[in-house]
């Protein structure tokens, strides 16, 4: 089976790896202001909750970048015969929490150069994401255009913690640049804190587990905003990928949107289709974390209502504690080829199904 893992986190041992890629002015910010040390020293706004166990599996604790790659190769890429692993970074997504967007732009630019220099050449299975800071859409668009032509870059990625819903015209320079270079725009769970102060609609949560259970709330807002603001009329070929936000909420949200649109469509006359039709055409969802009802057929019926056979993309979330192995993905057996890899080929145009001989030794 051809497998594309759309969410593989490539950790670093320390934010110090960014120092060679930062201009002296910003390097001084990081060294004197943040004191790079263990992972987690990357600058970001503080969250109201704390993770009680840490984000990574306890059996994966690399000390260096090389260890990180070798462990990933042994415990994930080779173990599950992964054909393509899309790197989604980790701490760099938190740049979206910084009020100083100049600094945020410098940090994500440094990470992107580091990722291209160190990670992409390491394994032919790796594909990269351009990390952006959406707090400065024009700066983000410049970064997309700077790196968007790289053959192993397959998407633009931001945190799903934001100051505004992502359909807001404020962000449209990002989508213009994505359309120009032919890359999908993806959001990944996280980035709450700092300027993105609320993880959920009613206010800050106290515990990580409740936050994790509610992680779909911002994603719901962004999906509705992208559709209602006409992003997919303006950029009809743009794919919007929602990573690590659950999926079972999608059908009920589309039912409500379609019903309300029929009654109130005069507010958004630029929309030519039902919201659910835009969703099926332009929006894709990662499988991780896939909801786990006691009766799996309840999940399958829900997924059928969102055309899951065509709208789901496999994601493991390696190496996080709630990692989903390809062998444990509870989807209808007839969907496996499409969800595990073939759907990704339609979204990530630069990925081709490789011959077995092309894999890393």
TrEMBL record:
Top-level taxonomic group: Bacteria
Amidohydrolase-related domain spans which residues?
44-349
Q: Which Pfam families match?
A: Amidohydro_2
Keywords, A to Z, come to: Lyase
The name this protein goes by in its record:
Amidohydrolase-related domain-containing protein
Name a biological process GO annotation.
Answer: secondary metabolic process
Q: Which GO terms describe its molecular function?
A: carboxy-lyase activity; hydrolase activity
User: Which is a Gene Ontology cellular component entry for this protein?
Assistant: cytoplasm
């Amino acid at each position: 089976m051809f497998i594309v893992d759309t969410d593989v986190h490539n950790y670093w041992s320390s934010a110090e790896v960014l120092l060679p890629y930062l201009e002296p002015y910003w390097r001084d910010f990081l060294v004197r202001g943040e004191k790079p040390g263990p992972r987690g020293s990357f600058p970001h706004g503080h969250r109201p909750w704390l993770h009680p166990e840490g984000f990574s599996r306890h059996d994966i604790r690399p000390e260096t970048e090389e260890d990180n790659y070798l462990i990933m190769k042994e415990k994930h890429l080779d173990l599950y015969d992964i054909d393509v692993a899309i790197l989604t970074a980790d701490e760099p997504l938190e740049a979206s929490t910084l009020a100083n967007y100049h600094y945020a732009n410098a940090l994500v630019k440094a990470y992107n150069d580091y990722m291209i220099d160190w990670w992409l050449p390491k394994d032919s299975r790796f594909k990269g994401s351009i990390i952006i800071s959406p707090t400065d859409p024009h700066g983000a668009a410049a970064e997309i255009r700077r790196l968007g032509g790289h053959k192993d870059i397959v998407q633009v990625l931001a945190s799903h913690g934001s100051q505004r819903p992502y359909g807001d015209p404020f962000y449209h320079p990002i989508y213009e640049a994505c359309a120009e270079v032919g890359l999908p725009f993806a959001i990944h769970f996280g980035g709450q804190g700092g300027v993105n102060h609320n993880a959920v609609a009613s206010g800050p949560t106290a515990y990580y587990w409740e936050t994790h259970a509610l992680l779909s709330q911002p994603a719901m807002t962004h999906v509705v905003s992208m559709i209602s603001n006409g992003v997919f009329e303006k950029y009809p070929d743009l794919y919007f990928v929602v990573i690590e936000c659950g999926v079972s909420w999608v059908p009920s949200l589309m039912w409500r949107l379609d019903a309300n649109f029929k009654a109130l469509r005069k507010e958004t006359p630029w929309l030519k289709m039902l919201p659910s039709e835009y969703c099926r055409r332009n929006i894709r969802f990662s499988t991780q974390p896939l909801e786990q009802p006691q009766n799996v057929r309840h999940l399958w019926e829900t997924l059928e209502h969102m055309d899951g056979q065509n709208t789901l993309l496999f994601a493991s979330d390696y190496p996080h504690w709630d990692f989903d192995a390809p062998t444990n993905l509870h989807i209808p057996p007839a969907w496996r080829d499409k969800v595990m890899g073939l759907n990704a080929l339609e979204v990530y145009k630069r990925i081709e199904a490789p011959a077995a001989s092309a894999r890393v030794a």
